[in-house]
Amino acid sequence: MTDKTLPVGPKPSSPKQAQQPGNARHRGLEGSTLGDCSIETFLGVGGMAAVYQAEQQGLERKVAVKVLSQQLTKDPKQVEQFMREARALAKVEHPNIVRIYSVGQDEGLHYLVVQLVAAGSLRGLLERETKLPPERAVKAAREICLGLGAAHKAGIVHRDVKPDNVLVGNEGEMLLTDFGLARMLDDPTQSVGKIQGTPHYIPPEQVDGRDVDARADLYSLGATLYHLLIGEPPFSAKSAYELLLKHVGEVPRPPSERDEAIPEALSRVVCRLLEKDPADRYADVGEVLAALDAAQAGGEPAAPPAAEPTRRAPPTPELLLTPELPPLELPPAPVPAARGRWISGAAALALVGIAAFAWPDLALAFGGGQAPERVFAQRALDQLDRAGLPPAAALGALEELRAALPGQETLLEARGAELEAELASTVRPSLEQAQGLLDEGKPGPALELLVALPEALPAEVGQRRKQVMDAARARLDEAGFAWVPGGRAPSGEGRLAVERDVAGCYLSLREVTRAEYARVALERGFYLPWGEGAPPIEEADLPVVGLNLGDAARYAAAVGCRLPTAYEWERAARGLEGRRWPWGDRLADGGANWAAGGGVLSAPGATAADVSPLGCFDMAGNAAELTLAPDHTAQAPRAWVRGGSYLTRDPQTARGAFFLAVEADARHANVGLRLAADALPEGAK
User: Fold this and answer.
1) Last residue of a domain, one of 92, 115, 138
2) pLDDT greater at residue 324 or residue 26
3) Catalytic site residue 106?
């Protein structure tokens, strides 16, 4: 902010008429009246609101008026967030928090009237001075702490502490502002489980979707203090996506290692604030203030905790950045659905009421007359018939009977021959249907139909099933696609993991390369992430990265495909059994192309171990991939990034269930794409 007064323009007839595009629209409010405030000067604009200097009539005091963007006024959720700031500010009065005077609505414009702080923000101070001496940095941190303490006492977590949201008063005092993301601890209706905050200062628990408490603000305070001392935040990256993952899995370099002028004791305070696990940070602002005072005095805080915490490994992200998915709890390995396979022989025996006895027990049970094993075998077959099992399950039960009733092969084989003939007659229509689908250029649905058939079949139909399956798989391999089966399968992780229905689709086995993208992009004038012309020869076989959602979707449409939905991608990466990583439920050395392996983008398929149950390569590493978010529409594009990349440091963020919501127009240096299609593209059939 600035105390410079701009010329006052002609007064518009109403605030609505004053709204014009660009800064002209904002300056157009100068000279108008909102409630009891006469708007004098346009001060600036942020993501949600424009800010004006005004005079509050009657009280004759200078104030700041925040006016919600007219576009956001149409969204009830945005209006609620704007009003949340008013409610949060109204709960506390403290010298280090900007005061709110009133809230109102005038001809469709929502606005807040707050204390005018004319000296600017802490961000502006850093832009002028780059960094602050330790004494001034500690003084600023203490005052921010005092403001946070008042907010926390009122049950408010700020959730967006950063230099931009700290104003500098005329006497150099620090005042917290912008409580638009604040969360009331006693309000269970506020959303959790999605990213809210600013990437350079955001705590890990806000990145991976956990609920937050006051210790989240302490992490952001630590990131802000780090910036004050060093001249830059603790982490930097080429994209917000990479930055968020660093907050989750990378330990920052201590400030004292970067600048010898920073006392070791103060550096330890900053590192304690920046612990990944909230339990390892200070418990509250009182402990932070004691630690800052002790560090400034050259000692350690007298108040507990007296000892530095033992640094643990960064916690597993509790995922999944969406309101419908919970903190991660590792469940037992899921049991896959039978999907048309046999019921096990033992289960079938139990189903028909047959128990296994030792032969002496059978002799006692039947007394004399017919051989007890013959009587038992006949009764078992009678019970098997009455159970009404499908032929495949009945054959499985018959195999168990053969093992349990030696010497009765003749009786059992006769029934087995009948069941095999019955099974063959039920399977043949499916084989014919699968062959028809294959002839129509639909190898995916054909394969899904064949996989659902029992594994053990009579020799004739079993051989025919294998021939059609091999032909379908060969067609898919030749086309470079896998078939993602439809139906229900695990999605998400934790206690709210769900069985999700997904329609079957095709998904490319490998990520799109730069050469493939260039062939289409150069012809059609699409965006080229490497600049002009064809990509360098040595990079032609690398995945294309640096595209936004629109770039990727245009390319996919041009080659007769589309982008996968987030859940289609997850199904392909995790398989029907819901693996944690494409290769299984345990981490594997060299399993994927991650930062630990050198952090270099490779040709698709170069990491042989990173292959999903459906045969798709690089779904855990190399390049992360754009997918369509569940709430994506043509009118409101939404993107989720799935999978790890060559920059991934924490393998937990490369799990098949993990994702990160990103802006649809954002381009990331480690994010590429994979193609999906409802029908196999013409050139690939």
Assistant:
1) 115
2) 26
3) no
In angstroms, the CA 644 to CA 601 distance is 12
Q: Are residues 530 and 634 in the same domain?
A: yes
Provide the edge-to-edge strand list for the sheet that holds 49-56. Answer: 33-34, 37-45, 49-56, 61-68, 109-115, 100-106
| Stated length of the chain | 685
Q: Which of 559, 548, 549 is nearest to 521 (CA)?
A: 559
Task: Provide CB contacts within 8 A for 145, sequence distance 6+.
Answer: 221, 285, 288, 289, 292
Tokens of 243: 């930055």
Of 77, 325, 330, whose CA–CA distance to 209 is shortest?
Answer: 325
Residue at 232 is within a domain = yes
Give 394 or 566, the one with higher predicted confidence: 566
Please, where are the H alpha helices in 334-408? Answer: 345-351, 359-366, 372-387, 391-404
217 in the same domain as 137: yes
CA angle 371, 375, 378 (to 5 degrees): 140
Asked if residue 46 and residue 107 are part of one domain, the reply reads yes
Query: Is pLDDT larger for residue 370 or for residue 298?
Result: 298
Same domain, yes or no, for 463 and 516?
no
- Paired sense of beta strands 671-672 and 624-628, if any: parallel
Please report, as a single letter, which amino acid is at residue 364.
L
With cut-offs at 50, 70 and 90, classify the pLDDT of residue 543. Answer: very high
Q: Do 146 and 57 reside in the same domain of the chain?
A: no
Cross-strand partners of 61: 56
Residues 3, 36, 106, 160: which is the catalytic one? 160
- SS in 3 state form for 82-117? HHHHHHHHHHCCCCCECCEEEEEEECCEEEEEEECC
Task: Give the CATH number, domain containing residue 218.
Answer: 1.10.510.10
pTM of the model: 0.57
Q: Is the pLDDT of residue 403 over 80?
A: no
Mean pLDDT, residues 267-271 taken together: 97
CB-CB neighbours of 55 under 10 Å: 17
The answer to whether position 98 is within a domain reads: yes
Domain final position from 51, 85, 115: 115
Mean pLDDT for the chain?
80
Enclosing domain of residue 458: 353-479
What tens digit of pLDDT does each residue of 194-205 get? 445 578 999 988
Same structural domain, 364 and 448: yes
**Model pLDDT, residue 192:** 40
Note whether residue 311 is domain-resident. Answer: no
What's 208-264 look like in SS3? Answer: CCCCCCHHHHHHHHHHHHHHHHHCCCCCCCCCHHHHHHHHHHCCCCCHHHHCCCCCH
